[in-house]
């Protein structure tokens, strides 16, 4: 099915690489004008230019989720070009945040992860709400690690659990504005951010899924497109694990 997002303007954070880039591309392929946001200015410009060269309607905007002023400035710039119809909260600290048990975990690293993954997601959503048209959709990218309790990854797991809970609370408030918000919980996906993950963790996932094998970005993008489209217009506050059946909700 093509054209699910025709005429919509969608903001995607963390769009310079990994799942975020694939979310941006998938939305563009479905007819959306996509605003790609990321802290990685050089990679963002390169990726945005690449999609524009393919004929897609692309804008780009640098954003740092650890800095409230950066978030406010980014959405001020986005708003100058008009309203939006959707938001994908994908940006997060996901690399270099694991490998230590709860006893040895660095409290400062914990604070940084929470600041970006939880507070940053809230502040981005807050900044986006005044720009969102009635009937818009928001997708928060959580993780199935929060469902099965992945060890030696405590701050990340806790942050994604908070995103899931926050999604439900936000749904109660944003419903008054006819804005839908849902979360997806991808499993371990083969992208740049997971290259550092030990081989045994990849094997655990790939052998433990009901649909065995590696998870690719294309296995995740369809759920985001669907949640942003009119096909999900009466769905809000929900969590959808997208992990091939490694863990069930």
TrEMBL record:
Transmembrane segments: none annotated. One of its GO terms (molecular function) is oxidoreductase activity. It holds the Pfam family adh_short_C2. Keywords: Oxidoreductase. Belongs to the short-chain dehydrogenases/reductases (SDR) family. Homotetramer. This is NAD(P)-dependent dehydrogenase (Short-subunit alcohol dehydrogenase family). It comes from Raoultella ornithinolytica (Klebsiella ornithinolytica). The lineage of its organism: Bacteria, Pseudomonadati, Pseudomonadota, Gammaproteobacteria, Enterobacterales.
């Amino acid at each position: 099915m093509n054209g699910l997002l025709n005429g919509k303007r969608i903001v995607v954070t963390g769009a310079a690489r990994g799942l975020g880039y694939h979310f941006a591309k998938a939305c563009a392929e479905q007819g959306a004008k996509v605003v790609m946001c990321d802290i990685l200015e050089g990679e963002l410009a390169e990726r945005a230019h690449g999609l524009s060269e393919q004929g897609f309607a692309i804008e780009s905007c640098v954003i740092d989720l650890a800095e409230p002023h950066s978030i406010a400035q980014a959405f001020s710039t986005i708003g100058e070009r008009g309203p939006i119809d959707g938001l994908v909260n994908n940006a997060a600290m996901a690399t270099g945040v694991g490998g230590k048990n709860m006893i040895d975990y660095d409290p400062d690293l914990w604070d940084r992860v929470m600041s970006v993954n939880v507070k940053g997601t809230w502040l981005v959503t807050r900044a986006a709400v005044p720009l969102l048209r009635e009937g818009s959709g928001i997708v928060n990218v959580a993780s199935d690690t929060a469902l099965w309790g992945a060890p030696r990854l405590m701050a990340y797991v806790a942050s994604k659990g908070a995103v899931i809970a926050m999604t439900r609370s936000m749904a109660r408030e944003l419903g008054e504005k006819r804005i839908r918000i849902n979360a997806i919980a991808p499993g371990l996906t083969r992208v740049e951010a997971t290259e550092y993950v030990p081989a045994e963790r990849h094997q655990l996932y790939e052998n433990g899924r009901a649909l065995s094998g590696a998870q690719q970005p294309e296995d995740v993008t369809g759920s985001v497109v669907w949640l942003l489209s009119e096909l999900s217009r009466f769905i809000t506050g929900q969590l959808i694990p997208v992990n091939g059946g490694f863990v069930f909700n």
